[in-house]
Write a structure and sequence with these properties.
single chain, mainly beta, globular, binds D-galacturonic acid, binds calcium ion
Length: 197
Amino acid sequence: EVKPSETITVNSTIIVPAGETFDGKGKRYVANPKTLGDGSQAEGQKPVFRLENGATLKNVVLGAPAADGVHTYGNAVVENVVWEDIGEDALTIKSQGRVVIRGGSAQHGSDKMFQVNAPATFEIYHFTARNAGKMIRQLGGSTFKTSIYIDGCVITGMKEAIFRTDSTTSEVNMVNTRYSNVGSKWYNVRNVSESNN
Ligand code: DGU
Ligand code: CA
Ligand code: CA
Ligand code: CA
């Protein structure tokens, strides 16, 4: 594990405009707890990064406190992003789109890692997820469809599940993934396919 050379305190949410790429070059970003949030389970904290439609976030380390992490609006790519200590949650899909995570890791979430608040295709490749309540949670009580694809990941220590939803149409396909201690694995997920795990 490489330690970031520099830590940047973020006082107001960094917005990555539509179609643009933000390259953190391996630096650590932490939230100013007074302006963004302290990374506790309190709702209403602000994200450290906000990705507009078609934005890419890469080579970023999110340190503590990570407040409400990363919010995505539309399509987004999150590449080689490491959450050292998940805040309220790590990433939230705020509006409809295809969100792709490639590489990186997240750990130490009191509850949720990825929160899906809008219909989405959510693809997660070669990601390490450890020590949280659940890896993915679709907004409680929502009935829209979320399609999840998990490929080549390592998932350990989820108290409740890898994916929890209240929607009968949401689906997950998990392949080439190693997992252990993931609670009930799928919590109320009606459509599951798995291979090579
Ligand atoms: O309990 O709206 O946890 O986006 C209802 C809340 C909750 C969200 C979610 C989030 O579902 O705040 O962080
Ligand atoms: Ca929450
Ligand atoms: Ca945490
Ligand atoms: Ca949140």
